[in-house]
Each structure stands twice: as structure tokens, then as C-alpha cells.
């Protein structure tokens, strides 16, 4: 692709910025109308057939008889649902880093590193040139839906601030690059768009996250930021640093033209009220996105205030009922026949060579037309040590409800089981919670969690009757910054790393509690 760097000075002029905003608004209306009239089932069917045709001469395509696939049913009969480990062991490991014509045509140029939060092992997820284009299209769709709903929110008059991981990609033996997905996106950003973005390249290469956030705060405070993107926990750290370096009491005083905050990666509910207070402006809107290393899944549509699956960017979606995951041949729904309210595991087939790939996330549909979902958790993030069958969404809701009832903000938390140590005594759940400021009555906080889980989960209540199978939850306070220090001690600080919210084994929970106690972070 020819360089567009020479155009960057021109695009930074006030006149061009105004013109760019006008063009973006026109595109936003067009793109939203296109999505609203789209035949999602037909688009998805055509997407799968196009991917199959393109990959039929790859090793995977030959192994699975792609040349004879004529329908979704044909495809599902030949390609089972599989997880990352299967693809790695069967096709990628022996050839890595040169994955060429194995599961996707041609040589893979990038690998997105994923921490694999459910397994703990680093994953190298292939990112093809087609996937680079897919992610760009998804980003423009997110912006378009926001601008369509907020036509007065001019974004190109200032800068988009991307608070992502390091852009320092590691060159592999074959010349491919591996690193954080945000680093890949930054590298592939058109030069003519760089005047509209922050931070500059030299700052993104900093690997020490404390230094990086400090430098981000110092420099961005002087920039006209109109949009901000990042994981909520790190956005909160950035806000704190910004107020420290400027002496201002709200983010709106620092960035008066801020209009959009894009967040993802964790549940936003615990942060919503805190962010409203920190920002201090009703003009700023929040937008949730659901990206993953394997492909972009959904973005919030302000028309409906739910995540909307993006069906037309070279990804085919399947959804497996969570209760059938252990079956050899689970039922595989598409966007044409999913049911509202059912817990599904997300399965992707993409333009980067993953085929009916189990992502590890769970969702539930709010509506089928258009396809609206809510993120409910991880396939391996559950809590059922005593038969209580809690999922991430329910625990998140209970903590948020308790925080609201007690007048506090829970910035981060982790929960796991504490098993009985003496005969005849029941076990319980231990919640380690970091609060933004102050601390609640812990007994009341625990009771609010308990009451909410009793209300929303029909399996939880019977296990709590008479304290026979499970005792009242226990809540311990983690001092502000404690979770960040725990992550740092494990080499998982910053970037796209997130605090593990649930641990069904109890081992991680015990390790965390002991670490906080021994290192002075227990409240």
C-alpha cells in the first residue's frame, strides 16, 4: 500500500477537520441505514460460503472437504466446534511462526497475543490481512452508530485517545510480528489519520505501565481529546493521574470537548456511576464494544442501548447452548435461529483461519432482529463449588447492586470458594473487593450480594437455606491499587490484562487473599 504520510499535515488543518466530520456524519447515516435494512441471515450465509471458497485449497480446507460444502448444514457436518488448543496442536505449532496456507490462504503477517484468561497460557492468534481490514471496518461501524445517534458530537475536531497495550511488536523468525492487538491496529493505522489520534508512537512503545500512564496524562492533558477508548480499570487510573497532573477536579475541565468513551473487556456497570462523577459532564456518552483477538463480535448501538452483532465483516457466527458444550455434537445456532434469553457460547469462523472456534465467552440475546446481545461471562468463568451454578453476569450484577445499596463504588473484585476446614461446617464465597473511596459496612455489603443472588439465581437460594450447604458470603477489602499490584507481581500489569473475576477451584482466591495480607494491601 502506498504511504499516505505526506497527506498528514493537510488533514490536520481546521478546514479539513470540519470536512472530515461532515463526511463521517454522512457515512454514519448511510452505514446505520445499511445495517437496519440488512438481511442478516443471508449476509451470514454468504459470508460463510465466501470464506469456505477462499480456503478450500488450504490444508484445513482439504482435510475437511471444503470443495463439497454448499450450505451451512454441509459445513457444520464437516467442521466440529473446537478450541484454540486443538488448532495450535493440529495445525499451527509445528509450523509456527510461519503459518502459510494451513488454515487460511497465504502467510500470516501478525499474531495477536492473548493471555488466555481461562487457561493461563499465552495464545498466538493469527491475524491475516483480511482480519486487519475486518477490524478497521468494525471500528468505523462503532463510530458510525454513535455519530448517527449523536449528530452534534463532532469527533474529528479533536483527537481519539486509544489507551491500549504496547505497540512494540516482536519480530518472529519469518518476519511476522507478534504483540498486543492494539499494537497491530496502531501499526496499520493510515498515516493520514495520525493527526486525529493520541498517543504518538514513541509513547506507545513504553512497556512500564506506571510510567506510560503518567506520560499519557502529562501530554494528553494539553490535547483536545474528543473520544477515549480503553479497559475501564485503566481508564480509571488515567483519570486519577490526569487530575493529579492538572489539579482539576473533573475530566470535563481538562477535556471540555470529550464526547465519547469506548469501553470493553470487563463489565462496565461497577464503573458507570464512578465515571459519571469523575467526568462531570452529561455530554459524554459511553459505548461498549465486544472485540476479541479472534475477531470483532459486537458494538453498542445507541438506538437500542445494547451490543449489536456486526454481521458483514468476514466473520461467521455460531452459538452453542452452554449446557451442551460437553457434548460431541452440540446444537449450533446461527443469527437466523438463536433464541432470546438463552445462554450461548460464542463460536467464530473468521477470515484469519479459525473455523467454528470456541472463543470462551458467553452471551444471551436480547433480540434477534436486529441481533442484540449482552455479554454474560466466560465458558470457564463460573462459580459452582457447592452446586450453586453462578455465572459471571449474575455475580457482577450482585456486586453492583450491593455497591449501589451501600453508597460505594466497587472498582474491582474477585470471588472464589472457601471450602470447609472442619467436618459439619459449610463453605462460603470469599469476595475480595477494591473500593474507589471509603468502605461500606462489610456485613451489609455481603448481605446485599447474598440477597441479590437469591433473587436472580434459582439454584443459589436452596444452597443457602439454613446455612447447611453454603454460608453467608465473606467480604474483605483490598486497598486502592491492590489489584494492580497483584497483577504487576505476576507480570500481567497493563495492556489488555484483566483481573480474573471468578475462580471455581478456590486456589487463586486463596493465593490472592494471602498475597494482599502479606504485602500490606488488605483493607
TrEMBL record:
<feature type="domain" description="GH3 C-terminal">
    <location>
        <begin position="393"/>
        <end position="505"/>
    </location>
</feature>
<dbReference type="InterPro" id="IPR055377">
    <property type="entry name" value="GH3_M"/>
</dbReference>
<feature type="domain" description="GH3 middle">
    <location>
        <begin position="312"/>
        <end position="378"/>
    </location>
</feature>
<dbReference type="InterPro" id="IPR055378">
    <property type="entry name" value="GH3_C"/>
</dbReference>
<dbReference type="Pfam" id="PF23572">
    <property type="entry name" value="GH3_C"/>
</dbReference>
<dbReference type="InterPro" id="IPR042099">
    <property type="entry name" value="ANL_N_sf"/>
</dbReference>
<dbReference type="InterPro" id="IPR004993">
    <property type="entry name" value="GH3"/>
</dbReference>
<protein>
    <submittedName>
        <fullName>GH3 auxin-responsive promoter family protein</fullName>
    </submittedName>
</protein>
<dbReference type="Pfam" id="PF03321">
    <property type="entry name" value="GH3"/>
</dbReference>
<dbReference type="Pfam" id="PF23571">
    <property type="entry name" value="GH3_M"/>
</dbReference>
Amino acid at each position: 500500500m502506498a504511504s499516505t504520510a505526506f497527506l498528514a499535515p493537510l488533514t490536520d488543518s481546521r478546514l479539513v477537520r470540519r470536512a472530515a466530520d461532515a463526511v463521517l456524519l454522512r457515512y454514519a447515516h448511510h452505514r446505520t441505514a445499511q445495517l437496519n435494512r440488512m438481511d442478516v441471515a443471508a449476509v451470514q450465509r454468504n459470508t460463510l460460503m465466501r470464506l469456505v471458497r477462499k480456503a478450500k485449497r488450504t490444508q484445513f480446507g482439504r482435510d475437511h472437504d471444503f470443495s463439497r460444502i454448499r450450505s451451512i448444514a454441509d459445513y457444520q457436518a464437516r467442521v466440529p466446534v473446537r478450541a484454540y488448543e486443538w488448532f495450535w496442536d493440529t495445525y499451527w505449532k509445528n509450523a509456527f511462526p510461519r503459518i502459510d496456507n494451513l488454515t487460511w490462504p497465504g502467510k500470516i503477517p501478525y499474531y495477536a497475543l492473548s493471555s488466555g484468561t481461562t487457561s493461563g497460557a499465552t495464545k498466538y492468534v493469527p491475524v491475516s490481512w483480511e482480519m486487519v481490514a475486518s477490524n478497521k471496518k468494525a471500528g468505523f461501524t462503532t463510530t458510525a452508530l454513535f455519530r448517527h445517534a449523536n449528530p452534534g458530537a463532532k469527533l474529528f475536531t479533536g483527537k481519539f485517545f486509544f489507551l491500549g497495550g504496547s505497540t512494540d511488536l516482536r519480530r518472529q523468525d519469518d518476519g511476522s510480528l507478534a504483540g498486543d492487538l492494539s499494537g497491530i491496529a496502531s501499526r496499520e493505522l493510515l498515516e493520514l489519520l495520525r493527526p486525529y489520534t493520541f498517543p504518538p508512537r514513541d509513547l506507545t512503545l513504553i512497556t512500564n505501565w506506571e510510567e506510560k500512564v503518567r506520560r499519557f496524562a502529562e501530554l494528553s492533558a494539553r490535547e483536545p481529546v474528543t473520544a477515549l477508548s480503553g479497559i475501564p480499570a485503566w481508564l480509571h487510573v488515567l483519570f486519577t493521574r490526569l487530575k493529579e497532573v492538572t489539579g482539576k477536579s473533573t475530566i470535563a475541565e481538562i477535556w471540555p470537548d470529550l464526547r465519547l468513551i469506548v469501553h470493553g473487556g470487563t463489565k462496565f456497570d461497577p464503573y458507570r456511576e464512578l465515571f459519571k462523577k469523575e467526568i462531570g459532564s452529561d455530554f459524554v456518552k459511553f459505548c461498549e464494544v465486544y472485540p476479541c483477538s479472534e475477531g470483532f463480535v459486537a458494538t453498542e448501538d445507541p438506538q437500542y442501548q445494547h451490543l449489536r452483532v456486526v454481521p458483514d465483516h468476514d466473520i461467521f457466527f455460531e452459538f452453542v447452548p452452554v449446557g451442551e458444550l460437553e457434548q460431541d455434537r452440540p446444537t449450533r445456532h446461527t443469527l437466523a435461529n438463536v433464541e432470546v434469553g438463552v445462554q450461548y457460547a460464542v463460536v467464530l469462523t473468521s477470515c484469519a483461519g479459525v473455523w467454528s472456534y470456541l472463543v470462551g465467552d458467553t452471551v444471551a440475546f436480547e433480540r434477534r432482529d436486529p441481533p442484540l446481545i449482552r455479554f454474560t461471562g466466560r465458558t470457564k468463568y463460573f462459580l459452582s463449588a457447592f452446586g450453586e451454578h453462578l455465572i459471571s453476569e449474575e455475580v457482577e450484577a450482585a456486586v453492583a447492586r450491593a455497591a449501589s445499596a451501600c453508597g460505594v463504588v466497587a472498582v474491582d473484585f474477585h470471588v472464589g470458594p472457601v471450602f470447609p476446614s472442619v467436618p459439619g461446617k459449610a463453605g462460603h464465597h470469599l469476595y475480595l473487593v477494591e473500593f474507589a473511596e471509603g468502605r461500606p459496612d462489610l456485613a451489609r455489603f455481603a448481605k446485599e450480594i447474598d440477597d441479590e443472588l437469591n433473587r436472580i439465581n434459582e439454584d443459589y437460594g436452596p444452597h443457602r437455606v439454613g446455612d447447611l450447604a453454603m454460608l453467608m458470603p465473606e467480604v474483605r477489602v483490598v486497598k486502592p491499587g491492590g489489584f494492580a499490584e497483584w497483577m504487576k507481581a505476576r507480570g500481567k500489569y497493563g495492556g489488555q490484562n484483566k483481573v480474573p473475576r471468578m475462580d471455581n477451584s478456590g486456589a487463586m482466591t486463596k493465593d490472592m487473599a494471602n498475597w494482599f495480607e502479606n504485602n500490606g494491601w488488605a483493607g
